[in-house]
Automatic annotation (TrEMBL):
Residues 1-18 form the signal peptide. The keyword Iron-sulfur does not apply. The keyword Transport applies. PANTHER family: ABC TRANSPORTER GLUTAMINE-BINDING PROTEIN GLNH (PTHR30085:SF6), AMINO ACID ABC TRANSPORTER PERMEASE (PTHR30085). It comes from the Bacteria. GO terms for molecular function: ligand-gated monoatomic ion channel activity. It comes from Pelosinus fermentans B4. This is ABC-type transporter, periplasmic subunit family 3.
Amino acid sequence: MKKLYILILSLMMFIALAVSGCGSTTDSKPAAGGTGTAPEIKAIQDRGTLKVGVKVDVPKFGFKDPKTGQIDGFEIDLTRALAKKILGDEKKFEAQGVTAKTRGPLLDNGEVDLVIATFTITEERKQSYNFSDPYFTDGVALMVKKDSGITDLKGLADKTIGVAQSATSKKAIQEAADKEGIKVKFLEFGTYPEIKTALDSGRINCFSVDGAILYGYLDDTTVILNDRFTPQEYGVASKKANAGLAKTVNDTINDMKKSGELDKLMQKWGLK
């Protein structure tokens, strides 16, 4: 009888330990997408670096100094703020130069976590990527040679306008030209310096992109016309599946707006 009592007691203790063990395993692994850290953010934290696609040819936003090799600008400061938010250190990011044509594919194939590169928010692009709330608003503008005598869009009738590949400038100018009842031609280029060179050489009659970008290429021989077309709102883009990362980015930008930090950065770079 005594042996049977000991056997029953041992069996009860074994069952209690097994149940306790199962419970601790479940509690230690919160479900992905639940209240724990989002998987894509944890992956960035485990890697120790935030990978961001930035412009390297847009003075004041993202520009690589040819002498030092350093990239700096308003959007680089925004990148620093996000690295600090996600990794606790504003220096823990890798900046990869992108163009209007390459920024989407680099985000698609996972080479970068975010794109912060004068990326205009459009309904069409929102079908493919998460966009933060706007952090800067501008309008499409026109730069011409001072000696061209061109003062407005009508003056570009039957002329050639240089635009960046995959940018929204072409659509905005075409719509405005249609309203004016004039015909214009376009040549597309891979980078902004290529467009400026084409303008200087007379290959095109106008360089069109957002006004703030054009100011980075303004010199003694050129002028930016007063016309502005189609407001362009810049947002931080992330992959559609990375909802947790998109929320963290958006929360950070809105916190910067509320605190006045975003305004200070615009003033720092002469954008406001």
